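User: I'm writing a short report section on ligand binding and want a predicted complex to refer to. Could you take this sequence and flavin mononucleotide and write out the structure as tokens? A short remark afterwards would be nice.
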Amino acid sequence: MKILFCYHSQSGNTALACRALGQRLNSASWDFFDVAKGSLPDLHSYDLIGFATWTYYLALPPFFEEFLSRLPEQNGKPAFMFSTFGVMAGQVLVRMKKMLTAKGFVVLDGYSLHVPESYPVYIAQDVHSLEAPTPQEMTGFDGFAARMAGRLERIRAGAAPQPAKIKLDIFSRLISPASLKKIRRDMGPLTVDSALCDGCGICRQVCLYDAIDSAMPPVFLPDKCKGCWACFSHCPQKAIYTGKVRGQGHYPQPAAALTAKLTMTEQ
Ligand SMILES: Cc1cc2nc3c(=O)[nH]c(=O)nc-3n(C[C@H](O)[C@H](O)[C@H](O)COP(=O)(O)O)c2cc1C
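Assistant: Sure. The structure tokens for the complex follow:
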């Protein structure tokens, strides 16, 4: 059995968790496809496709949503979903399932893992979730991997894939994702401290929305910006700031504690 993980990860939590999941599904072989490449993967040679993303304001990041919308029509190909979140999982799995089912995938299961927060505004307010995932949450993750391993076995034995029911938790049912207008308004204008900026261009490289022009220092294009904070978090000089956050709240890569929890040492 071959699995392809199509993942979208801005600061590495989701990519790391996908690798941890792959290690736990060790009866199969797996490959990874980073959605940020912009192209589409060839799904034909895989028996099962995993779709994984980070949580963007209680919903799917626009880049990932666009990736899903470009996938070719399927005829019952088995898939599963995975997401990481810092505070509230929101509607990610429900929205993803709707899009994948409309494409003709059979969605077998889905799981959202609580991990450290990467939203700079929250980190700056000391809402880090650095303790996540707790031992109990790790048990949930291991349980999901075991369920998926069981499903793989059944597919291998020739059973028809069965679609999962994905339920929203009570909070995610009550709180709707914000509009892009509100996201941008809450973020406020991005500015560069030209005394700190060394013109490395990393902000432009990590912006998936082409929202930073090639001027020096960079100029942000509010009509294209989706409020993802990738430029802010990845700026090595911490030169990018807003009215709310300056010089703190960056999350460019997984917290060391998360890496330690998720990385299985080879036996
Ligand atoms: C712009 C932005 C919005 C976010 N919105 C949410 C959210 O609505 N709910 C949540 O639980 N976490 C939210 N997060 C946290 C991330 O989803 C979480 O830390 C995730 O693991 C990051 O994954 P990555 O490292 O693979 O990019 C947000 C992070 C960012 C940067």
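A remark for your report: The chain is about 35% helix and 15% strand. Residues 38 and 94 are 24 Å apart (CA to CA).
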